[in-house]
Design a protein that fits this description.
This protein is of the alpha/beta class and about 220 residues long. The chain has 6 helices and 13 strands. The strands form 3 sheets. The protein has an 8-stranded mixed β-sheet. A 3-stranded mixed β-sheet has the order 5-6-10, with no helix packed on it. β11 and β12 form a beta hairpin. It starts with a strand and ends with a helix. About 45% of the residues are buried.
């Protein structure tokens, strides 16, 4: 599936870094998706995110993005969610009780336990793919190191959607995969060549038009 790569713009998020990352991996056509009409012509969707779960969901509702996003996910169209773009796929979050997420996956977003653990979880950590043959991990080490910044993480009810795990005081689902939908708690746009490869692998597998890029090709 070709078409333009859409990047969800809900008034916050790590847009500039994600747009720079897409440029680095040779994305041919990219546009911001800030309202329902902007989905027209989009073939793959990237949802970057930083900030609070409740603020993000409120902005999605205010901009009329919830319904088209729910429809996009239900149709199993290519979607890469990053951080908050991962968390909003679930039913709700301890960060903002009573605020409904997109509910595409069953489960809640929880906080790291208090105690000796430093929260937020910030920096590089090991990601353990559950299915190393998945195209998204192609060309990466068996346990790649990727960059995290978060205090909350999803707890999927469906174990079969967990694409990768990471340990930080507890083992958590650092990525999920179902059909054309992939989402990660790590930030590929901040994870240097390994993160760029994950992003490029996903988009290439989803049919995006990508030019040759030396940094990613060399690994």
């Amino acid at each position: 599936m070709a078409g333009t790569i859409g990047v969800i713009d809900y008034g916050a998020g790590n847009l500039r870094n994600v747009l720079n990352a897409l440029e680095m991996i040779g994305a041919a056509e990219v546009k911001l998706v800030a309202g329902p009409d902007d989905f027209e012509g989009v073939g793959q969707l990237v949802f970057p995110g930083v900030g609070a779960f409740g603020d993000c969901v409120s902005q999605l509702d205010r901009r009329g993005l919830r319904e088209p996003l729910v429809g996009w996910l239900a149709a199993d169209r290519p979607y890469f969610g990053i951080c908050i773009g991962y968390q909003v796929l679930f039913e709700g979050s301890e960060e903002c009780p009573g605020i409904a997420g997109l509910g595409h996956f069953r489960g809640q977003v929880g906080r790291f336990p208090t105690g000796d653990l430093k929260v937020p979880h910030m920096g590089w950590n090991t990601v353990v793919p559950q299915d190393p043959s998945d195209a998204v991990w192609a060309g990466l080490p068996a346990r790649p190191h990727l960059y995290f910044v978060h205090s909350y993480f999803p707890r999927p009810d469906q174990a079969e959607i967990i694409a990768a795990t990471t340990h930080y005081g507890v083992e958590f689902a650092s990525a999920v995969r179902q059909g054309a939908i992939f989402a990660s708690q790590f930030h590929p746009e901040r994870s240097q060549s390994a993160g760029l490869r994950v992003l490029r692998n996903f988009l290439a597998d989803a049919g995006a038009q990508l030019g040759p890029v030396g940094l990613v090709a060399k690994g």
